Structures are given as C-alpha cells and as structure tokens.
Amino acid sequence: MAKKIALAAVLLLTPIMASAQITDFKAESYQDENGNELNYRILKPAEYDTSKSYPLVLFLHGAGERGSDNFSQLKWGVNRLAIPEMREEYPAFVVAPQVPEGEWWSNLRTEKGDTTTYTVPLREDPMEPMRLTIQLLDKLEKEYAIDKDRIYVTGLSMGGYGTFDLLVRYPEKFAAAAPICGGGDLTRAFLLEKTPLWIFHGAQDEVVDVRYSRKMVDAIRLAGGSPGYTEYPHADHVGAFVKAYRDPELYKWLFSKELDR
C-alpha cells in the first residue's frame, strides 16, 4: 500500500520530474521495403530480461507534436511512463512514433461546429503514418520479448482520433485503450463492443468538442459495450490529458488488462 501511495504522489508532481527521464526513450527510425520512413522513440523495461515477456504501450501524440525532430512527441503524457517509480511498478515497452508535419494519424475528419456527421468517413486504407506504425508494431513483436496479449494503445487529441482509428481496424489486437480528447467513426463503434476502453475528455475543450467523445461512448454502449468515460467538468483541451495521464488509476486499470484468447 505504501508503495502505491508513493507512486500516486510521484504522478501528481510537476511535469519537470517526468521530463527529466525522457532521454531514456531511444531514438529510432523504421523504414518499409519502399524506403518510407517513420521516426519513433522506444523505452525498454528498465531491467529487460529476454526470458520474460513484457506488455507494450503504443502512444499516439497530438497535432502540435508533429514534425521530424523525433522528440516533440514526448511532450505530453507518455513521459510519465519513464519515471523510475513507474518503470519499477509497470515494466513495459513504450513506443511513441512521430507523424511528419502536415500529416495525420486518422483519415477521419470532422466538420467544424458539426457534432453529428463527418465530412470524410474513415477510409479503407489507413493514413501513411498509421500504416507504418502498424508495420512497426509487427516488427517489434518479432524483435523483443513482447506479450502479444498485453498490447495497449493510448493517444491524445489527434492521437485520440488515431486510437479509435487503430482500434476499429484491429479490434482484437489491443488488450485495452485510452483515447483522450478524440473522436471516432460512429458507424464502426460496434467493432469496439468487447474492447476495454477508458475514454477521457474535458467539458471545456475548445479544440475537440466534448460531444465527439460523448457520441462514441453512446454508440459503443448502444452496441452492447461498456466503455469507461471520465469527463472533467472544468478542464479544457490540454487540461484533460494532463489530468488523465496524472491519474494513477489509469495505469492500474490499463496494465491489468489482458486479451482473453
């Protein structure tokens, strides 16, 4: 109990403490057979032992962290998984790809001010960064001792959309997911009926309307699912994912999930 209280206290500290550990994420680059490239960072378990198997957390960043520096994607949220106490409590691989400037995780687009329809429905083929990310996951699963029954995905803002995008394409791949300040294709919400989900949003979000998360929650529930949903009544866009990633219950919940094959 004392250990968990100490971990909760660490998570509530300022982001400076977490940012001091982000250099533990190793810079890497993935190339497909045609030379298409995806920058990413990877954090390995602190005491990596190839005789064991470890969960993997895929983190999808927001639009403001796009680029080619292979560093900006660590700005929000994911850096908390590099805190020594977190690495001890939850030994895992953490992978954070970076979307190039001007590109997107998901090809789903919303009409500004419209919370009922999408101007471009989710298309059959994923966006290029997502396509490469899917290939990257397959590559990492072959290279490292990764528990295929404990692969998780979380993302914020643009990455929240990306999380839903990835889940409906591979609904049986991920043991759990936490989309934050995002939205998804309501017509495919039925595919997420059995996926353990904890969705977060701020009621005062000025960037991604909170109704996008509300509608996804309603659609998944209508299909028979039971997603968790936390709406912060006074949080704006950034405030919501800061609060979500500081919540020790999120990690306790996430790492407790395992695919039932």
UniProtKB/TrEMBL annotation:
Gene3D superfamilies: alpha/beta hydrolase
SUPFAM superfamilies listed in its UniProt record: alpha/beta-Hydrolases
Pfam families associated with the record: Esterase (PF00756)
The organism's place on the tree of life at top rank: Bacteria
Signal peptide region: 1-20
InterPro entries linked to this entry: AB_hydrolase_fold, Esterase-like, Plant_Biomass_Hydrol_Est
Keywords tagged on the record: Signal
Name of protein: Prolyl oligopeptidase family serine peptidase
Native organism: Fodinibius salicampi
